[in-house]
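Entry type: protein chain
Record version: 2
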Amino acid sequence: MFNVNETVTRYLACWNETDAARRRHLIEATWTEDGTYTDAHRKGDGYESIDAMIGAVQHTFSGYRLSLRSGIEAHNGVVRFSWSAGGSPDAPLYIAGTDFATLASDGRLVSVAGFIDASPAPIQ
């Protein structure tokens, strides 16, 4: 038996962890070995690729930390939740999204599809 709330908490911690070794440990505890992440701008397949993708996002959005902004809804091996980042002096632009994931029988993520709900206006 697994706790989906712990899975989502670890998932958000992966995006927030800047220490490479700790982030990799979290990724391995959170995703299956062949797990995937996909959104409109990035894709990660497997531990190494997901780790590199998160590291690149952290480099681009330095100072941003994801936090849960909705309840966690789960049924039949899928989960949905919303998150936000920014809106602080260190990370002034507000970003928010909703992620949909499929879960393995041990509670780790098999796949995550991310959608951006709110983002800064494009620079003209």
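Comment: The chain has a mean pLDDT of 95.
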